[in-house]
Structure formats: structure tokens, C-alpha cells
Write the C-alpha cells for this entry.
Amino acid sequence: MLKGLGSQRLVALFAGGWVLFNFPLLGLWDRDATVWGIPLFPAALFLLWGGLIAVLAWLMEWPEDRLADRSEERPDDRAGGVPPPPAPPQE
């Protein structure tokens, strides 16, 4: 099914985009106002769309393999909630 935090974040982004571009929230922008000469509704659509693309790009560039490498280094310390050993004292 969904493996990893990355795929769960993508599903959450999809659900958030679905909610943002659905009627009740889209109705908030349907006003007779302008932003720098552009009607509010198309400007809001463009900004929401660009924001979703930016979040998607950020999620795709997230270094998920770095997290997997850290968990493979010392699997015995992370299993069962065992904390890592204390650091030796420095002189």
C-alpha cells in the first residue's frame, strides 16, 4: 500500500489540492475585486496552483534516502525503543 512517509505526504498534498480547488473554498475568491488589475478569482487560482506545484517540488526533492541510510547504520539501537549509548566524555 503506502510505503514511506514520502508517499503519505503526496497523498496528503493531493487531498489538500482537492479541498482547495473544490466549491466551498473556491467560492471565497469569487468577488468583484482586482489585484494589480487582475480579477481576484483567476489570480487566486494561479497562486494556489503555483503553491501546490512548489510544495510538490519541495516534496520530490526531500532527501528520503538520507533518512533510510541513517536507520540502516545502527538498526539494533532503534529497534524496540532502545536509546543510543551515551557519548564518551570529552576532555
Notes: The first strand starts at residue 34 and ends at 35.
